[in-house]
Amino acid sequence: MITEQPLTEATETSWAKIISKYRTPSRALSWWQIANSFIPYIILWGLMVWSLSFSYWLTLLLMLPAAGFTIRLFIIFHDCGHGSFFKSQKLSDLVGYFIGVLTFTPYAHWHHAHQIHHRTAGNLDKRGVGDVWTLTVNEYKALPWKKKLFYRLYRNPLLMFGLGPALVFFISNRFTFKGYSRQERFSVYLTNLGIFTIALVLCLTIGWKAYVLIQFPMMYLAAVAGVYLFYVQHQYDEVYWTDDKNWDFKLVALQGCSFFKLPKVLQWFTGNIGFHHIHHLSFKIPNYYLEACHNESPVFKQIKPITFFKSFRTLRLRLWNEETRRLVSFRSLKPNYS
Question: Which pLDDT does position 4 carry in this prediction?
Answer without folding.
Answer: 43
